[in-house]
Amino acid sequence: MFRTASALWMAMILAGVAAGQTTVLQMETRRVVLPVTVLDKKTKQSVTSLTAEDFTVTDDGQPVRITHFRSPEAARPLAIYLLLRNDRVDQKTLPHIERGLTDALQTLPQTAKVAVASYSMTDIAIWQPLTLDRNEVLAAIHRVVTANPDLAAEKHKSNDATKKTNGNEASANNATTPANGDGPATEQPISNSQAMKNLIKHYDFGSSGGLEMVEADWSAKPQAGYQPAVVVLDDEMSFCYTWRATHLHNELLRSAITLDELTEERSKLFTALVDYTKVVAPAGIPLSPGGAMFRYRYETYLAKASGGEVLAAGKMGYGSAFQKLFNDLSRAYEIEFEPTARDRDGKLHKVEVTLAGSKTVNPEKYRVMARDHYFAGMPQTAVEKLKQSGKSNDSGKDAETPGP
User: Fold this and answer.
1) 353 neighbors 57 (Cβ within 8 angstroms)
2) Domain 78-151+172-331 is of which CATH architecture?
3) pTM for this entry
4) How does residue 252 score in pLDDT terms, banded at 50, 70 and 90?
5) Rounded to an integer, what distance in angstroms lies between the CA atom of residue 262 and that of residue 253?
6) pLDDT value of position 181
7) What's the rounded Cα separation, in Å, for the pair 247 and 267?
């Protein structure tokens, strides 16, 4: 994430300048902030005793100097969104999830803020905004667990019917409108921000819609001094369209949100079907001749790209899995570096954090989790020039992201 360092203002009174006139010089530095979690490969436990000298950071393959380093004890407190699924298929497991979260939340530092959100195939909602009050969090979790998913489905149908009655579908039925929920109606590429907005508003459901909602909530109401994270609960059958996975990837990077995934196993038949399809079509199932595709397990892809962790609920149990995710998030280092002036172009840049290796630290014994890309913010002068020239740095067409 980019964080603006404290601005330095200096008033320079120039000789010969008329009385009352003052020249003000503003100096500003922007740095990339990377939460970094280090796990012992053998014990799977987080390592918290490393120093800045133990890390190496490269920006587009070039080594960069670490300007600031914070140990886990000195890192910013967490702002965690719990993104739970509330579909008909989940009704039996939701009480177990509630019990697991009740125990796991006790292990979070008291300085951490928590929000509760949910998604289904017909609806998304934030049940509790970010708060320090654990009782409010637990009450919101209970409301999610006891909510009737059929009500959300009926509301979704009602909203669709209202849109059609009011004739609001006319503007939506353009070349970028999904056809019957099966993908873009034509092959016309997304070329501007309005087209992207048209697509997104028709996908306000599922875990991708939930993640979009959480990112928008954080962007609209960022918590100063907190590092954001999302813990999403999903299953092995999760997928979304490739264009949406790319969009979510870039938005999470822009907002510096770490995504952790807790996945539930489905039946062996479902798992076998997914594995078979991955072999037949490893890049996804083509939805059209133009190549629109699903991305399987896209949350796993987003978690790895954002420096997050992926755990299986069935192997650990909900309580232990949530507790491990919370512990590892709260034991992350914070590493900062300053991009070069050339890199401040508003584009996607590859960043890699590794262990340098020493007599006391063997990199082969540890796993390092950190974001793999960042967006380099443009200097304000460059942004103003683009606006004046009629060009926009935010074209709405997301930068191409690497494969999983």
Assistant:
1) yes
2) 3-Layer(aba) Sandwich (3.40)
3) 0.74
4) very high
5) 20
6) 31
7) 30
d(Cα 335, Cα 337) in Å, to the nearest integer?
A: 7
- Pull the structure tokens for residue 4: 């603006």
DSSP helix, strand, coil percent of the chain (3-state; round to 5): 35, 30, 35
Name the amino acid, one letter, at 373.
H
What is the residue type of 271?
T
Q: What is the pLDDT of residues 149-179, one digit of tens each?
A: 655 445 444 444 444 444 443 333 332 222 2
Look at the block and give the residue holding tokens 């708060």.
131
Report the candidate in 307, 295, 272, 313 with the shortest Cα–Cα distance to residue 84.
313
Q: Using CA atoms, how far apart are residues 69 and 64, in angstroms rounded to an integer?
A: 13
Calculate mean pLDDT across residues 29-38.
86
% of residues, the chain, pLDDT over 70: 61
What confidence tens digit (pLDDT) does each residue in 117-157 have?
998 877 889 999 999 999 999 999 999 988 876 554 454 44
Whole-number Cα distances in Å, 212 to 88, 154, 182, 348: 22, 22, 19, 19
User: What are the strands, taking DSSP E only, across 120-237?
Assistant: 124-131, 227-235
**The one-letter amino acid at 385:** K
Q: Which of 180-184, 286-290, 351-355, 392-396 has the lowest mean pLDDT?
A: 180-184
Q: For residue 270, is pLDDT > 60? A: no
DSSP structural state of residue 379 = P
| Overall average pLDDT of the 239-262 stretch | 87
**CB neighbours of 160 closer than 8 A, spacing ≥ 6?**
none
pLDDT of residue 395 exceeding 50, the answer is: no
- Return the axis-axis angle of helices 242-255 and 193-200, rounded to nearest 10°: 110
The structure tokens 């870039």 sit at 250
**Spatial separation of the C-alpha atoms in residues 122 and 120, rounded to whole Å:** 5
Residue for token pair 């970094």: 36
Separation of alpha carbons 307 and 33, rounded Å:
12
CA distance 179 to 163: 16
- Show me where the domains of the chain are located: 33-71+334-389, 78-151+172-331
Nearest partner of 178 among 241, 87, 251, 238, judged by Cα = 241
**Which H or E element spans position 296?**
strand 294-296
Residue showing tokens 């309005």: 194
Closest C-alpha to 231, from 77, 118, 399: 118
